[in-house]
Amino acid sequence: MKQAELTGLLCVIWAVTLLYGEMVAFWRPSLGSCSWPHQSNNASSSMVDRDYVKVAVLTDPQLMDRTSLPLPPKSLALELAQFFADLFMRRAFHQSVLPLQPDVIFFLGDYFDGGPYLSDEEWKESLSRLKHIFSLSAHERYSNIPVYYLSGNHDIGYGILHSRRAEAIKRYEKEFGSRNYRFAVGKVEFIAIDAQTIDGNPQGILTSSTHDFIKNISMDVQAYPRVLLTHIPLYRQDWTDCGPNRNSEIINQRIVRSADGQEVVYQNYITEESSKYLLDSIQPVLVLSGHDHDQCHVIHESKYGPVGEYTVGTVSWQQGNLYPSFMLVSTSNFVPSTASNAEEAILTQPCFLPMQTHIYIWYLSLFALTLLALLLWPSSGVSVGHHFSDLMGLGKQLISSIRSRTKEKNEDLNCEYEMIWDAEGSMHLVKKALSSPIARTSEKNLVERGTAVMRPTVRKNSSQEIEVTVNADTDTDAMAKLLPRASRSWTKRVIKRLVRTFRMVIIIAAVNVPLYVMLLFKDWIDQ
Q: Domain Calcineurin-like phosphoesterase, which positions (predicted)?
């Protein structure tokens, strides 16, 4: 294969890699790797689309901002991190979620990263990005899909911030609506609560309003199966197994309160007392939560029986989870005849998105392999087979040289050297075989290797003598001339190979960089 053919092959490999990593990988959920649970093989054949409403559940996009990384605001590094994080979620939404044709979309909170700490201008900028990523503007062609929102701790903060940054809650409610509300999808009722306030100061207005909302729910007659929506997961014992879809380490309960013990500064899960209160008051058949950034399925015990909870993983690839995901939920359009059939009323299926970190690692690996291939490939006009045969021949010569040195070394053990001067006064070393070779180590002290014997007369060569002429001056001059010449030749070859490699890299980049840029911006611009 010639250099031109190698360059063409690498161009094709890079093009295929970019097309997969930037486009095809996001088609997998909609191409069969993920499907609506009521359409799976495990569901009853009588369960058809008209019997269910299709709900897509996403959580924790946590749009990066100046609070996310220790980088200067508006710096190029931060802007690039934001762009690639936003681009991944936009691709995930438009190429993985929407092709599944959901009827309803849920967001379980944490839309921003530093929500409570952003100025109004910064918050509006992040909100504009959120609407662009998920096509939430009124003029978007997907605006006919109902969307329901849940508040998260990165949106309004924990209880300790509610009195200090009241504007964070006001602007959230102005844009996304109430933090505690109920709605029906099909014949299933969903109860959305503000989990950030439920463990706060009981005398506080926000906590009291959340408890009043839950109390009113508990007093109503339950006509449909209920699903509890909470950003913060319910309490579970430490090291509770999260099931096979968990990819990160289990996170145990950690709750930090203010000095007076009234307000929450941070918490991983709702407290055990509040969790029990929610399960007994709302009586859900299922709990959906976020906050943890990874998948988790646990079973809670309530006085009405076991209740399953699914914690949905983050939809972003830059939030500590290498396996971003979303969830598909099928809610029934029929009222189950008995309580035992309530599980058929709500079916769930987690779906995983492309592993963006692994894609970028493959890009770097392919780049390294490309450089090695271009650097080590033989020059034009030289076949690959001939190139490798030369390398094999060089290896054989090296092995023969080593063996020859070993043989000469062994012969030296059974010979002696004599120093002889000829008529012109030149000195010669004559190797002479011993009459009795050294056979045992014990005889080593009798015959010394390389014994030099002074002879005043000139001797003629015999069949047992090998003459070795030492001409030090001639060899030194020859080596002095050969070394610089060999060094210059090697340097010239290296420079020529580097220039050739750079030229071919430019050709590969000229073909694939425009393709990469096109793939980036085709998904970013409004469709």
A: 90-294
What is the rounded distance in angstroms from the CA atom of residue 325 to the CA atom of residue 311?
11
Is residue 492 in a domain? Answer: no
Q: What is the count of structural domains for the chain? A: 2
pLDDT at 444: 42
CATH of the domain at 254: 3.60.21.10
**What does the H/E/C string look like for 8-30?**
HHHHHHHHHHHHHHHCHHHHCHH
220's tokens: 């109503």
Cα 36–chain centre separation: 26
Per-residue pLDDT tens over the stretch 326-345: 999 999 888 776 655 667 78
Same domain, 4 and 88: no
Is-above-0.85 flag for pTM? no
Helix (H) or strand (E) holding 279: helix 272-282
**Residues 6+ away with beta carbon under 8 Å from 42:** none
Return the ∠ at Cα 336 (arms to 332 and 340), rounded to 5°: 120
Are the CB atoms for 307 and 287 separated by under 8 Å? yes
Domain boundary among 304, 319, 354: 354
